[in-house]
Design goal:
Elements lengths: L7 E5 L10 H15 L11 E6 L11 H12 L4 E13 L3 E13 L10 E2 L5 E2 L1 E13 L7 E10 L2 H9 L8
Parallel strand pairs: 2-8
Antiparallel strand pairs: 1-3, 3-4, 4-7, 5-6, 7-8
Length: 179
């Protein structure tokens, strides 16, 4: 039995000059740092996504993300005063239409409100944060002659354990217990 073999870009570490040499990863760093880490979600969704962009929901079905999803992303990041995505592993393969990427990152957050006695966590640069969420991501990028950087996202999947964030939010009174 034979298997399709493709070339892959594999990298261990944070965004740097090596990841910026790959066009899709240079685009992804810009997208992540400008839109999410700076909480700049006022940019219209179509600037970075295909019209049929898919984002799996908690109900386990896929539906176009479009405007509702972009608003949901803003709502998802809304409670946090500052996020930081710090990648540690990236695997990119080329497809006929663009690229697929699987990545692993720690996502750090600052929470509003007065901290209780919780222990702070530090990112790779030594900055203290209220909480970290180890996460993995799967992205599908397509080439686009009409978009900035020549790339747009066609789909995103996020895998993360949000329990640490919820625990800290409960401690600060940002969410209430639902029993």
């Amino acid at each position: 039995m034979s298997f399709l073999t493709v070339f892959a870009f594999e990298y261990h570490g944070i965004w740097d000059v090596v990841t910026r040499k790959h066009s899709a990863m240079a685009w992804m760093e810009s997208y992540t740092t400008k839109q999410f880490d700076r909480k700049n979600l006022a940019t219209p969704y179509h600037h970075y996504h295909t019209d049929d962009f898919l984002f799996p929901t908690l109900q386990r079905h896929r539906r176009p993300w479009r405007r509702r999803g972009w608003a949901a992303a803003a709502q998802l990041y809304g409670p946090f005063t500052a996020p930081l995505h710090e990648p540690s592993y990236i695997l990119v393969t080329e497809t006929e239409a663009g690229w697929n990427m699987i990545g692993v990152a720690n996502v750090y957050f600052q929470l509003p409100g007065e901290p209780s006695t919780e222990v702070k966590v530090r990112d790779g640069g030594g900055k203290e944060w209220d909480v970290v969420v180890p996460s993995s991501f799967r992205f599908e990028y397509v080439k686009s002659a009409t978009k900035e950087g020549g790339i747009v996202l066609k789909s995103t999947k996020i895998y993360a354990d949000t329990a640490p964030v919820l625990a800290q939010m409960l401690k600060r009174g940002l969410v209430s217990r639902m029993i």
